[in-house]
Amino acid sequence: MKVNTLLSISTLQALHIADGEREITSCYIGDLLSWVMGRAKADSAWITIMSNVNVLAVATLADTSAVILAEGVMPDDEFIAIAKAKGVNLFVSSLPAYESAIALSELLS
Amino acid sequence: MNDTLVFHFEVDGEDFTSAGQASVQIKKNLRQLGMSPEVIRRVSIAMYEGEINMVIHAGGGHATVTIEEGYIEIKLEDKGPGIKDIEMAMMEGYSTAPDNVRSLGFGAGMGLPNMKRYTDFMTIESEVGAGTTVTMRVNYA
Fold first, then answer.
1. How many CB atoms lie within 10 A of CB B3?
2. Is B62 at the interface with chain A, CB within 8 A?
3. Can you tell me the distance from the alpha carbon of B74 to that of A25, in angstroms, rounded to the nearest whole number?
4. CB–CB of A61 and B17 under 8 A?
5. For residue range B71-81, what is the model confidence (pLDDT) as tens digits?
6. Are residues A42 and B108, on separate chains, in Cβ contact within 8 Å?
7. How many domains does chain A have?
8. Which of A4, A76, B63, B94 has a Cα-to-Cα distance from A84 of 20 to 30 A?
């Protein structure tokens, strides 16, 4: 599915869409950044509760398609500004990570 | 590619939020050179982990990336405290990172293992009290 497809999930709010046509091929949940870099696949949607700016560096370098902040975690303005600068697709989910992933799974399959 | 390209970066040891600048720049450079996405991803992640290590443990350092025929070499040099037990440091889950670093999502003991995982060759030379040099290579077709 494409990043724009996430817009159809009512519990997701888009904070920045850099490339809505980008493909999402899988989903990864994790908060330990090195773990994410070691295990998340390229082109996956990454669900996390971390909202420090290093998340955006990891998303960029690990080539994830989108970052989804779960549990309604709202990042600060600096985070959003850097997401825009780095071209990271950024969403906030009002649901916990597990339920967020289930919503994605329905669209991925 | 006949010419050897060399990129140098100073990694700022004070600034955690800007860590990764060298890796992001290298990613751009490799993309311009037409490297495959998978090679770029492997180099970027290995180098970022190395950058983070230098920020956490060594107060910064120096990174050199050389594009050779058939492989990309990443050399990370610091004058930090050195690694007491390299074998332990290479184990997944082993970490000596402080709590403030862990609260940012680092310090999971995956940095060096990831660097090894994503590269085709890696050596660590370290002297306690003097510093550490990590050399990694990623092959490309």
1. 7
2. no
3. 30
4. no
5. 999 999 999 99
6. no
7. 1
8. B63
- Verify whether the Cβ–Cβ distance A57 to B44 is below 8 Å: no
Cβ contact B70:B139 at 8 Å:
yes
Q: Which of A37, A42, A53 sits opposite B114 (nearest CB)?
A: A37
Contact B49 A52 (CB under 8 A): no
d(C-alpha A106, C-alpha B2), whole Å: 49
Residue B16 confidence (pLDDT): 80
Give residue A67's domain range.
3-108
Q: How many CB pairs under 8 A join A and B?
A: 68
A2: which DSSP letter?
Answer: B
pLDDT at A64: 98
- Supply the CATH number for residue A43's domain: 3.40.1390.20
- What residues contact B9, with CB distance under 8 A and at least 6 apart? B21, B22, B25, B26, B62, B63, B64, B65
- List domains and CATH numbers for chain B: 5-139 (3.30.565.10)
Cβ within 8 Å, pair A57-B113: no
Residue B140: both structure tokens together: 């490309």
Spell out the residues 6+ positions from residue B85 whose beta carbon is closer than 8 angstroms to its own: none
Q: How many helices (H) and strands (E) does chain B have?
A: 5, 5
Residue B124 tokens, joined: 């660590």
